[in-house]
Design a protein that fits this description.
heterotrimer, A alpha/beta, B alpha/beta, C mainly alpha, B: 5-stranded parallel β-sheet, 5 helices, C: 0% strand, extended
Chain lengths: 469, 126, 372
């Protein structure tokens, strides 16, 4: 009887993984198509036009900062050097307890400003706005406010922003020089575009000088390497696939571009969730579909943003815990869209995908492992089922990890050295024997944390830009 | 006064073209491909004229110009800016920052040589 | 169960094998590619140096006709060594060389003007690239067609005009856009009329590209732009208004006044008002003031902004009440317009900054700080 339950469960989980694999394969093919289309479409674009022409739209770059005194000046300097025509850099000091604001004031010659703005999105109190006396920093705006979290800081930034587009980044995002040019273009080509995300690459192991990645490299530590491969799989072969159906649900908080008015129209970021970056995009989909307003959410596969990945297990674990809890928040807030044809591809394809594969996947997988182990312990192992399970979960996992690496190689090839490619392929295989199970376990724990009511951020360590390896 | 011209241009084919043209006109041309090298060479060689492309990666022509004017040694070297078409603001900004003259892309090599000559004459005279 | 398992196992093994093969293949490809890239780089440098020389050689400028004249002979002599070199290569090599060569010519064409462009065009014809590119306009891949259209435009190849006009009907959007862009550069300013007529739903990106050509032609485009104001497609009308404002041809104010008053769409009317401000014509002042009390907030805002650009002292009495009405944006624009009228206006702002309501004070301080 007991065995029958175990075997049935294993059968279920095998079928589940077959379903997952089919989805992944379809997504990879769709992604490949989208990437090639993107590359061809932009191969003869002169991005310099967005910088040169009078007609180009302006961008307000929002950089929320909390206790970043070690790195904030460097970050701001590199943002000011972005190669774009009309843009401003708005740093929102989210009630830092350290000398973040002081450092900025001293470094950039800031004085209090009488600048006013319409507080279209409600937020915590703004204590003051600062601008620089120095002419070359005239497009720098510092907003000092009471602590309210990243989402609240972003909302303030959006209120203060003067341009049509807002660029949302993390304080430790390293942007490429022409990042704005590349990500602005889709907004110019199609007036329906309300949000665009960019690929986030791992900067660990790269040589970073003056806030720019000058040489691409790979870290010598395992954890960042696993994340590189993971990001290929998630970003390159994952997100691109949703573009065609206008069902892209996540735009990374590390780099995103939005039409300011669209964000205001949906009410700004929610401040009561850790997954604010995903939540606002989902809410945009929902709101615009409900209002029947034509819109598009797109993704630019061109690598334009680099970020430092956690190198310690504890920090990585916190990050993944947070991501998973954010996903749960989104499901909870917008569960009504699931399988609801009114929400088109979002309701019928991408929300179910995120629920059954991203959210619940680790659970099914883990119970599968436990079931298999129990069978072995019992000695009455039905080897067939176990082997099947092993194949469809792990072996195919290897293939998708490797597939992600290959996709990168076919398209953007940011890693010039063949040795890098070999290393990444090897990591792709290795990823599935330990790392993946680890992250799955963390995600399961996130369920318990969520159930216990833990909704906050935890501590993140800011290390600043790495130079060399 | 020497007849060394320092030019900073990141696009290789244009850099070569400028180098050849000005060499044909009788100048000694030192061509670099980014702003950082331009500053180094400027301080080392003290050329008679510096030509800067505005749109360069890593360090724009404006940044180089600002650094040149901030440095006592290089402050008096005339700077010719190469700007993109239709960017009136860029031109004004450059002139305000102390550039001697400018030329817009697309440009004619002959016109470039004429501009260079004009600037050198102006500066040489005083 | 056994057979099914074996089938699945074999399929998996086969797939793994395939993936492994592909991986190895790509690794090898990458290693080889590194060399290939270096080679291309060397070729590019080689040809860019060669052609830099060709472009700079001291020869009289190319005559526009009489292809048998002695001057053409001299140019031919310049190109002879390059041609000989190409001929002596095996076909696969030659293809790569030609590709790099074409890249060099196109890159030069983007940044040079005057005599240099004429020479480049000559080289393009003489090295037989024109017929090759015209052929490529019929290629099965749309990106090849689009690239061909773009190159033909950059190299101003008039002979390709017929083929490019045909490409305006290409099934793929990008090819149509590039063809339109190419025609704008090479067919002279008159082509603007056709292009504006044929364009539908112009995106901002297309407008950007087209604006570069329009700006290069300058004031000659004005009659065509004015004509364009009567076209049915709203995006084209908006483009024409924008271009008129950028070029700054003051007499364009008259058709703009008409648009601002009577056009059915608010977007266009607002744009026309904005353009009147940018053209800076004092004669528009009265009309702009009449919009200050318009029920539509977009028009009021644009009128205030336009007055801010023109600087209209006579409008001061009409502007001051605007500090109390409308959205924050309108109030800020009103303050800017008041400041732009001159010292009287600025004094007025200072006064209100000290004595007005809380909102008025904030607005005035904001604008006064802006003006430095």
């Amino acid at each position: 009887m007991f065995e029958w339950i175990i075997n049935s469960y294993l059968l279920f989980v095998v079928l589940y993984f077959v379903g997952v694999n089919v989805s992944y394969t379809v997504m990879m093919i769709l992604s490949l198509r989208e990437i090639l289309k993107y590359m061809h479409h932009n191969s003869f674009s002169d991005y310099r036009l967005t910088v040169q022409s009078e007609l180009a739209v302006g961008v307000s770059v929002l950089a929320p900062a909390y206790n970043e005194e070690a790195t904030v000046v460097e970050s701001v300097r590199s943002l000011l050097k972005l190669n774009y025509g009309h843009f401003e850099v708005i740093v929102i000091n989210d009630g830092s307890k350290d000398r973040t604001l002081r450092r900025l004031i001293d470094e950039f010659g800031l004085i209090q400003s009488n600048q006013i703005y319409a507080p279209e999105i409600p937020s915590k109190r703004v204590r003051g706005i600062y601008r620089s006396r120095v002419a070359s920093y005239k497009n720098l705006v510092i907003v000092d406010k009471e602590n309210g979290g990243k989402a609240d800081a972003l909302n303030v930034g959006i209120n203060v922003a003067q341009y049509e587009l807002v660029c949302v980044i993390d304080a430790d995002s390293i942007l490429e020089e022409d990042a704005l040019q590349k990500v602005v273009k889709p907004f110019l080509e199609d007036h329906r575009v309300v949000a665009a995300g960019g690929i986030v690459r791992i900067a660990n192991g790269c040589e970073v000088k003056n806030g720019r990645v000058v040489r691409v490299g790979l870290s010598t530590h395992f954890l960042p390497l696993f994340q590189v491969v993971e990001y290929f799989r998630a970003f390159l072969s994952g997100r691109m696939a949703w573009l065609n159906m206008n069902a892209l649900l996540i735009i990374s908080g590390a780099f995103g571009l939005f039409r300011r008015q669209a964000v205001i129209d949906v009410g700004g970021y929610r401040t009561d969730t850790v997954g604010e970056d995903m939540e606002i995009v989902v809410r945009m989909h929902r709101t615009f579909r409900e209002r029947r307003r034509p819109y598009r959410v797109i993704f630019v596969p061109d690598p334009v943003c680099w970020t430092e990945a956690p190198e310690s297990i504890r920090i990585l674990q916190r990050q993944r815990n947070r991501w998973h809890r954010g996903l749960m928040d989104v499901m909870r807030f917008h569960g009504k869209m699931l399988f609801n044809p009114r929400y088109g591809a979002i309701g019928m394809s991408s929300m179910p995908y995120y629920l059954f594969i991203e959210l619940l996947g680790p659970v099914f997988e883990f119970i599968g492992y436990i079931a298999t182990i129990m069978l072995f312990v019992r000695g009455t192992a039905n080897l067939d089922m176990a082997i099947l399970f092993f194949i469809v979960s792990l072996l195919y996992g290897v293939m998708f990890s490797v597939g992600g690496v290959l996709l990168e190689e076919i398209s953007f090839r940011r890693y010039p050295n063949p040795k890098h490619l070999v290393l990444l392929l090897f990591i792709g295989v290795l990823e599935n024997f330990g790392y993946r199970q680890l992250t799955a376990w963390w995600r399961i724990r996130a369920f318990f944390d969520y159930a216990r009511g833990q909704r906050g951020w935890g501590k993140m360590q800011r290390k600043g830009f790495r130079v060399g390896t | 006064m020497n007849n060394i011209i320092l030019t900073a241009e990141d696009q290789q084919h244009i850099r070569k073209l400028i180098e050849y043209k000005l060499t044909n006109c009788g100048y000694v041309v030192v061509a670099v491909e980014d702003g950082v090298q331009a500053l180094e060479k400027a301080r080392e060689l003290m050329p008679a004229l510096i030509m800067l492309d505005v749109m360069m990666p890593q360090m724009t022509g404006f940044e180089v110009l600002a650094a040149l004017k901030a440095d006592e040694r290089t402050r008096s070297i005339p700077v010719l800016l190469v700007t993109a078409q239709s960017k009136e603001e860029e031109v004004l900004k450059g002139l305000e920052m102390g550039a001697e003259d400018y030329i817009t892309k697309p440009f004619s090599p002959n016109e470039l040589a004429a501009r260079v000559r004009k600037v050198l004459l102006r500066k040489g005279g005083a | 169960m056994q057979t099914q398992l074996i089938i699945i196992l074999s399929v998996t093994v086969a797939l793994t094998f395939v993936v492994a093969l592909v991986s190895i293949g790509l690794v090898i490809h990458k290693a080889v590619n590194a060399q290939e890239i270096r080679r291309r780089q060397r070729l590019y440098t080689h040809y860019s140096e060669k052609f830099a020389e060709v472009l700079l050689v001291d020869l009289p400028p190319l005559p526009s006709s009489a292809r048998t004249s002695a001057i053409f002979k001299q140019y031919e002599n310049l190109l002879a060594p390059v041609k000989k070199e190409l001929e002596s290569l095996p076909p696969v090599e030659a293809l790569l060389h030609r590709k790099m060569l074409r890249g060099v010519l196109v890159d030069f064409a983007r940044d040079l003007s005057g005599d240099a462009i004429d020479r480049l065009i000559y080289c393009f014809y003489s090295l037989d690239f024109v017929s090759e590119q015209i052929e490529l306009l019929k290629h099965k891949h749309w990106w090849v067609r689009a690239q061909a259209a773009r190159d033909l435009g950059l190299l101003r190849t008039r002979r390709a005009l017929a083929a490019l006009t045909a490409a305006l009907e290409d099934p793929h959007q990008d090819v149509r856009d590039q063809a339109r862009q190419a025609i704008a550069s090479l067919a002279g300013v008159e082509s603007l009329r056709t292009i504006l007529r044929l364009t539908r739903r112009m995106s901002m990106w297309t407008a950007l590209e087209l604006s570069i050509s329009v700006q290069q032609y300058g004031e000659e485009t004005v009659p065509y732009l004015v004509e364009g104001l009567d076209l049915p497609d709203q995006s084209v009308v908006l483009f024409c208004i924008e271009m008129l404002a950028v070029i700054g041809f003051v007499s364009a104010v008259d058709p703009l006044r008409r648009l601002a008053k009577t056009y059915p769409s608010i977007t266009v009317r607002a744009k026309a008002i904005e353009a009147m401000g940018r053209l800076g014509d004092q004669r528009s002042e009265e009309l702009l003031v009449s919009f200050l009390r318009d029920p539509n907030p977009a028009l009021r805002l644009k009128a205030l902004e336009a007055l801010g650009r023109i600087g209209a002292p006579a409008a001061l009495p009409a502007l001051i009440p605007r500090l109390e009405h409308g959205t924050l944006q309108e109030q800020i624009a009103a303050a800017r317009a008041i400041a732009a009228t001159g010292p009287t206006g600025t004094d007025e702002l200072h006064r209100i900054a000290a004595t007005g309501s809380k909102r008025q004070r904030a607005v005035c301080l904001h604008v006064l700080e802006e003006r430095g």
